[in-house]
């Protein structure tokens, strides 16, 4: 009888630990899912930490940055606002778990100033972009890349700086096109969105890109 009692206790102990093991195996994933849900909810309820910047102020900043780069590149053409010197604004999306929802942030915009020169030969484009790379590095910009395609048909200079966005410059052998782009970080419009604010482009409606002039710096 003692032996039967011992076996019964052993079976009870095994069943107990088996139950605990099953609970842990089942419970851990559930807790992880709950943790993700709670974190997602907190992030959704917390506004993005973008500054409030008037679109005209952002346009002026981007234009000044583009002009400095244009000075360093050293081209002698004047680029007035228009098809080859323009502004655009894009949607902003949150980082982290919120990005899974793929929903843009209301009232936020990411401004870009883009310009284009044609008929720039490689003999001028490459030295100019190399000067710009060195200048931006000296100004504290991180050089993300400066390289060409394997065929050598185009060169690309990509830079970024924390809190200040990106600058991208590309030269294409096809047409000798040299494209410059200053891309600002996301910002909120100073006033809350209204029915007239349907997209980020509405934030820059009526605003014009700065004229880029040779040797203005």
Overview of this protein structure:
With 217 residues, the chain is of the alpha+beta class. Helix content is 37%, strand content 22%. It is built from three helices and seven strands. The chain has helices at residues 2-45, 55-73, 122-138, and strands at 85-90, 108-117, 142-148, 154-161, 165-172, 177-183, 187-188. Strands 1, 2, 3, 4, 5, 6 and 7 form a seven-stranded antiparallel beta sheet that branches. The longest helix has 44 residues, at 2-45. The chain is elongated and about 90 Å long. Mean pLDDT is 83; it is low at 33-45.
Write the layout of secondary structure elements.
Blueprint: H1 2-45, H2 55-73, E1 85-90, E2 108-117, H3 122-138, E3 142-148, E4 154-161, E5 165-172, E6 177-183, E7 187-188
Antiparallel strand pairs: 1-2, 2-6, 2-7, 3-4, 4-5, 5-6
- Main beta-sheet annotation: 7 strands, antiparallel
Give the terminus-to-terminus CA distance: 101 Å
Order of helices and strands: HHEEHEEEEE
Q: What structural class should be given to the helix and strand makeup?
A: alpha+beta
**From the alpha-carbon coordinates, what is the Rg to the nearest angstrom?**
28 Å
What percentage of the residues does DSSP assign to strands (E)?
Answer: 15-25%
Shape: elongated
Uncertain segments of ≥5 residues (pLDDT<50)?
33-45
User: So what's the oligomer here?
Assistant: single chain
Number of strands: 7
């Amino acid at each position: 009888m003692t032996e039967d009692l011992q076996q019964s206790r052993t079976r009870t102990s095994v069943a107990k630990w088996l139950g605990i093991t099953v609970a842990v195996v089942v419970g851990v994933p559930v807790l992880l899912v709950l943790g993700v849900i709670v974190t997602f909810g907190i992030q959704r309820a917390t506004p993005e930490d973008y500054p409030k910047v008037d679109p005209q102020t952002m346009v002026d900043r981007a234009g000044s940055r583009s002009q400095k780069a244009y000075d360093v590149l050293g081209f002698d053409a004047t680029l007035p606002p228009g098809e080859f010197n323009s502004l655009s604004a894009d949607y902003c999306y949150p980082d982290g778990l919120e990005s899974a929802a793929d929903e843009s942030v209301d009232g936020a915009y990411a401004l870009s100033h883009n310009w284009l020169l044609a008929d720039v030969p490689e003999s001028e484009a490459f030295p100019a972009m190399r000067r710009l790379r060195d200048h931006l590095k000296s100004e504290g910009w991180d050089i993300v890349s400066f390289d060409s395609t394997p065929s050598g048909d185009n060169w690309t200079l990509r830079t970024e700086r924390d809190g200040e966005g990106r600058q991208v410059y590309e030269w294409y052998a096809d047409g000798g096109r040299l494209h410059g782009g200053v891309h600002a970080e996301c910002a909120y419009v100073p006033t809350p969105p209204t029915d007239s604010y349907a997209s980020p482009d509405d934030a820059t409606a009526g605003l014009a890109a700065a004229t880029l002039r040779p040797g203005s710096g």
